[in-house]
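Batch job 17 of 40 flagged for manual review because the log was empty.
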Amino acid sequence: MWENVKSKGTPPSARIGAAVIINDKKLILFGGYNQDGYLCDSFILSLKSMEWKEIQPNSRIPSPRVGANFIMTTNNKIYLIGGWDRKNLSTDCEHCFLYFWFFIQ
């Protein structure tokens, strides 16, 4: 059964093709595409408090893309793989914690 769940904070804009993963009671969202074009913003939704936070990068971030995927290894490392930026299919692999493009608290 579906139910409407209320959240706090400022949620991400409407989009398609964002990469999404759940890690330690947090939903992590990156990129996608909307009426403004290809996106490279990042958000975290605390599944405990149901509060959205936009994550401001403190270093290099992956290029804007749609259709990328997050994967998590058995030791809880998260990688962003692939995607499309209108000109190219990306074959790069970005290690979220190696580049510290966002910090998950």
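Reviewer: the log was empty due to a logging misconfiguration, but the result itself is present. Strands lie at 8-9, 19-23, 26-34, 37-46, 51-55, 69-72, 78-81, 93-95. Unflagging and moving on to job 18.
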